[in-house]
Design the sequence.
């Protein structure tokens, strides 16, 4: 079967009726940013289904605008922690944390593609229905997750960042008390080699933070005041800035002037404040612990999302391009999730080395949009080569292209269809 057909077959097989699971065994529920990227993949062959993916996700939005990272439409014993551990009390049952807000950017793409195909009229009502939900989620980030009004996103859990075991969370995770976590049985390591997954200490911290949120009734304002883990994530912050630019474009498209002015103000706050994440010593964008003020000091794939965020700062761009060339000379396949020159780099361990197609998509499109065509094209080509050589894995070793994590992975197949091919 050719790769286009295989990618479509993966999305179709992982479709559970209105939403798509990332991988049937390892991740048997609907995940937030996975679904957004999956919609881009569906859009290549089934526009109707693409919009439904996003609409289903937003059916799980809470009244205050919060959009959960997992929606448990049906229970499944193959994943831990499941709905009873989160105990958010919402219908449908969801987790209590969010994930990187790529949805507005995706919805703009879906809309532009419908429009280009002469189907704008058919999809306009659906765009109008989604817009206020996207705006409500972005307001939630502004009001609940940016306490210092820097225009960044302060993550309350490593899982919120989507880059679960990035070393960026090691030092900020130290204050998390894991002494009362109790016994639990992980399911991920029964599906996958433990060498590709987070460690026991990392899982203890993940669980302790879930217990912390649950003990506070998932009151996000209260959690933001007290949580022992509070990190301004460079990935989420760049993604939200980009998403706000796309939401502004949509507001103008829909003639929503008051909303446009409000979003403009959110963007202005970010443009004025996001430099807080620039580490002058490392000459790099990186995450920063809100509680200690310390930069992580790690060059990760998320550092390269400044281009996608539309930040145009020649000196900082030059710094990032120097890292790009250095890393590009070290590994055949960009962009490793952690700098290969870092002593903690591990080529198949999850977010400590492997290449992720969705991050490459954002890095590659951002570089190209900013006029760095050769670099953007290198990222796209490397992404395609990984899929051509090894199929559609969750992630890949940047050294030899070995697949890491689950196979037949939805968002990887989607990125093939939407961009890499
Ligand atoms: C991974 O995260 C989940 C928790 O959300 C897990 O390991 O159990 C991450 O790669 C995350 O970014 C992704 O959304 C999720 C599903 O693909 O898996």
Sequence:
């Amino acid at each position: 079967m050719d790769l286009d057909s295989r990618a479509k077959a993966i999305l179709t097989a992982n479709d559970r009726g209105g939403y798509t699971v990332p991988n049937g065994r390892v991740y048997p529920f609907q995940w937030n940013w996975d679904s957004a990227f999956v919609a881009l993949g569906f859009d290549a062959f089934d526009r109707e289904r693409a919009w439904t993916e996003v609409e289903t996700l937003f059916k799980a939005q809470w009244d205050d605008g919060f959009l959960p990272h997992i929606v448990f439409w049906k229970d499944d014993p193959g994943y831990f922690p499941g709905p009873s551990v989160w105990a958010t009390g919402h219908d449908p049952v969801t987790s209590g944390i969010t994930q990187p807000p790529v949805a507005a950017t995706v919805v703009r793409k879906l809309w532009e593609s419908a429009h280009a195909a002469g189907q704008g009229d058919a999809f306009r009502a659906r765009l109008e229905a989604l817009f206020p939900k996207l705006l409500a989620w972005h307001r939630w980030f502004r009001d609940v997750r940016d306490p210092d009004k820097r225009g960044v996103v302060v993550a309350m859990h490593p899982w919120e960042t989507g880059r679960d075991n990035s070393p960026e969370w090691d030092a900020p995770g130290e204050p998390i008390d894991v002494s009362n976590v109790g016994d639990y049985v992980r399911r991920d390591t029964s599906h996958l080699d433990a060498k590709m997954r987070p460690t026991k200490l990392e899982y203890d911290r993940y669980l302790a933070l879930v217990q912390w949120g649950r003990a506070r009734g998932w009151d996000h304002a209260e959690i933001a005041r007290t949580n022992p883990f509070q990190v301004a994530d460079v990935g989420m912050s760049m993604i939200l800035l980009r998403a706000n630019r796309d939401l502004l474009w949509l507001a103008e498209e829909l003639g929503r002037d008051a909303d446009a002015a409000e979003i403009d103000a959110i963007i202005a706050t970010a443009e004025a404040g996001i430099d807080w994440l620039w580490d002058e010593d490392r000459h790099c964008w990186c995450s920063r612990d809100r509680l200690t003020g310390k930069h992580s000091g790690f060059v990760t794939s998320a550092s390269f999302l400044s281009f996608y965020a539309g930040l145009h700062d020649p000196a900082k761009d030059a710094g990032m391009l120097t890292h790009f060339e250095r890393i590009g000379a070290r590994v055949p396949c960009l962009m490793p999730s952690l700098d290969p020159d870092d002593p903690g780099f591990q080529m198949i361990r999850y977010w400590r080395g492997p290449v992720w197609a969705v991050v490459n998509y954002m890095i590659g499109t951002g570089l190209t949009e900013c006029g760095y065509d050769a670099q953007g094209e290198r990222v796209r080509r490397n992404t395609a080569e990984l899929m051509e050589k090894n199929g559609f894995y969750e992630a890949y070793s940047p050294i030899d292209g070995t697949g890491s994590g689950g196979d037949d992975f939805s968002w990887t197949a989607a990125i093939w269809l939407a961009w890499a091919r």
